[in-house]
Design goal:
Strand order of the largest sheet: 1-2
Shape: globular
Structural class: mainly alpha
Strand content: 5-15%
Largest sheet: 2 strands, antiparallel
Number of helices: 24
Order of helices and strands: HHHEEHHHHHHHHHHHHHHHHHHEEHEEHH
Helix content: over 70%
Radius of gyration: 29 Å
Distance between the termini: 46 Å
Length: 657
């Protein structure tokens, strides 16, 4: 019973803390900050204490009569990874926020929505009922929207518009898929859906497509990624950190559930996810090369790193009975990505706190004399590029080995191309990270010497040091995470643990080969082509601004055309309905004398101030009067609504029968 209570506590605690923290902040911001740090620390502590019990057996909690279908929470080994990542990252970013937000306005509002976002995120990962999951997923979209537009300037509001627009559209597509899923299976519990969906034939592909699209918006799957480069730079850095480190995982979590649990590793669905993952890896890495704003580089980098995870999810289905290494690699990279990406965002936030600028053209040489910042950022760089000795090397090695396993099973041109894309995309990562590090931390600019100590407190550096230690520890002791994953993979039908020797000559050679290719791309393309000398200034250019743009060249025209065309259609329907009513009214004029049974009363006082009331009764209305009364109470917009409702009703009947 105590474990079920603990499950409810980690779900409700952040929500309650959001309200209490907001009230505290009205009187003392210092007390509110301390309160939020303590709450997120307690949240993390409870999650840690639940580890042994979760690995022994799943913790389940069912509360009926909530959310219509009941609230069904479950914490097993698979979900534990995501809940732990959320609690761990939120604790560190809360500490970091107490320093970062010190010059921001509306801090009280920020912290309230920050805690509500944590609550909804944990709710997503704990939900065993898929409609519960959808509910928390939509709540998270709205609470995180408040974080994105926090600055309330024109850029932040524009970024918020595209974020919430994509989130709502994705949510509606997801809901459509869930409605179809429930209509055909009558099942809502995730663990039972796999067996129920088997008998649906081709309909299951439509359902899985809709669900993957819905989750794919948050996972920044190509071509649903257009919000990423706008939102990450617009949000305050702690919010950007959790967007990339945690909220991105909510979409990937949903996709993994869909492909591996609902569709049970269906080869066709897994192949599509695999292909999309390769597209994400390559396109995200390529576009990151051109960016000059560090947060935008990291935004496209997050999209590319999501590609690695999507490739791993796809390989789970492609490898079938040999999928163990793909499952381990996918989950391992989810953990590693959260750690090193949050570290890199925090490092970028330190620069912004001092300079209020993160364009490498304007902050060149800032970090050369900042030893601690330079050191932790270098650790993050080594992690994300997969340098041996750092955590990224471990998960990328697993994914690389899974890809080679797939090539051995299917030795064709496509798998060979996939290996090439994997290597090139990894080289892109090295090139764009070197672009940041060399420009900001290695080039000279004496005007920036000694500024860090006056602006940055230890509480902003402490979370970065903790993340750096985690990166080094995982890199040197990879079995520490494998032990956790051993209790997770049972959810995917894997009964035996994985034994891998990471630091072999072959793996180290492969890693350094990729690094050398990346250095070559940096020297030849980034410095040779993108770096320009303008008098005494050295500037990076971004030719990709003139390239084909999905939002500008596809989405905006399509949405505008759709709006205009549907406006015309509804205008025609509106006029048709209004004309029909007038026609019917004219046709019935001949019957205007016909009486309709009914009655009405008028009330009035006999004298001013007296209570006595006389009622006058009218026995009958004419049909003409009825029509006139209806016409007065209805307008053309209401007619259109009724017409649309009728059309939808007809379509629903056709779908059902």
């Amino acid at each position: 019973m105590i474990y079920k209570i603990a499950l409810m506590v980690i779900l409700l605690l952040p929500s309650v803390a959001a309200v209490i923290g907001y009230m505290l902040g009205k009187k003392s911001e210092r007390n509110r900050d301390l309160f939020n740090v303590i709450v997120t620390g307690i949240e993390l502590l409870i999650v840690i204490l639940l580890y042994k019990e979760v690995m022994r057996e799943p913790i389940e909690l069912v509360i009926s009569d909530i959310m219509g279908t009941g609230l069904y929470l479950k914490l097993d080994g698979f979900r534990y990874i995501f809940v732990f990542i959320s609690a761990f990252i939120w604790f560190l970013t809360t500490i970091y926020s107490t320093q970062y937000l010190i010059r921001y306005k509306n801090r009280n509002r920020y912290y309230a929505f920050f805690m509500l976002t944590l609550a909804s995120t944990v709710g997503i990962f704990l939900s065993e009922n898929i409609l519960n999951l959808f509910t928390f997923f939509e709540i998270m979209s709205f609470t995180s929207y408040a974080l994105i537009i926090h600055d309330q300037d024109e850029y932040a509001l524009d970024a918020g518009k595209i974020y919430i627009g994509m989130a709502i559209a994705g949510g509606m597509v997801l809901l459509m898929g869930l409605f179809l899923l429930y209509e055909y299976t009558g099942v809502l519990n995730i663990s039972q859906l796999g067996e129920s969906i088997k008998v649906l034939g081709s309909m299951k592909y439509l359902i899985s497509f809709l669900i993957i699209v819905g989750f794919g918006v948050k996972a920044s799957i190509v071509p649903l990624h257009v919000w990423v480069p706008k939102v990450y730079p617009a949000a305050p850095t702690p919010a950007s950190a959790v967007l990339s480190g945690v909220l991105l995982k909510t979409g990937l979590f949903g996709i993994m559930i869909t492909t591996e649990i609902l569709m049970q590793g269906d080869f066709m669905v897994s192949s599509v996810i695999f292909g999309l993952g390769l597209a994400n890896m390559f396109l995200g890495g390529l576009l990151a090369l051109f960016q000059r704003n560090i947060k935008r580089v990291l935004a496209y980098s997050g999209m590319s790193q999501a590609g690695y995870i999507l490739v791993g999810i796809g390989l789970c289905g492609i490898l079938k009975s040999h999928k163990a290494i793909a499952v381990y690699g996918t989950l391992y990279h989810m953990i590693n990505h959260a750690v090193f990406k949050v570290l890199l965002f925090m490092g970028t936030g330190i620069i912004y706190m001092v300079l209020h600028e993160v364009s490498i053209n304007k902050i060149r040489g800032f970090g050369k004399h900042k030893k601690i910042l330079k050191g932790v950022f270098f650790i993050g760089l080594c992690a994300i590029i997969g340098m041996p000795g750092f955590n990224g090397f471990i998960s990328k090695t697993l994914l690389h080995e899974a890809l080679y396993e797939a090539y051995n099973l299917y030795p064709n041109t496509w798998m060979n191309l996939a290996k090439m894309i994997f290597t090139i995309s990894s080289s892109f990562t090295i090139a764009y990270m070197l672009k940041i590090f060399v420009t900001v931390f290695m080039e000279k600019d004496e005007k920036y010497k000694g500024q860090l100590k006056d602006h940055i407190k230890k509480r902003a550096l402490l979370p970065m040091v903790i993340l750096s230690i985690a990166i080094l520890y995982i890199g040197m002791k990879p079995e520490s995470i494998l032990v956790v994953l051993n209790g997770t993979v049972e959810n995917f039908g894997i009964t035996q643990g994985l034994e891998v020797h990471f630091y072999t000559a072959s793996n180290i050679k492969s890693s350094f080969l990729t690094i050398f290719i990346g250095i070559g791309i940096y020297i030849g393309f980034v410095r040779g082509y993108l770096r320009r000398v303008d008098g005494k200034e050295i500037l990076y250019v971004n030719p990709s601004l003139r390239w084909f743009n999905l939002e500008r060249n596809v989405y905006a025209p399509v949405l505008k055309g759709t709006f205009l065309s549907t406006s015309v259609v509804f205008h025609v329907l509106d006029r048709a309905v209004v004309s029909s009513v007038h026609y019917i009214g004219d046709a019935l004029k001949g019957f205007s004398g016909m009486k309709i049974k009914g009655s009405s009363y008028r009330e009035f006082s006999t004298k001013k101030g007296e209570d006595c009331v006389i009622k006058e009764k009218r026995e009958l209305y004419s049909l003409k009067e009825v029509i006139a009364k209806l016409s007065r109470n209805m307008n053309s917009l209401m007619y259109s609504v009724f017409v649309v409702a009728a059309i939808l009703a007809v379509m629903l009947v056709l779908l059902v029968f």
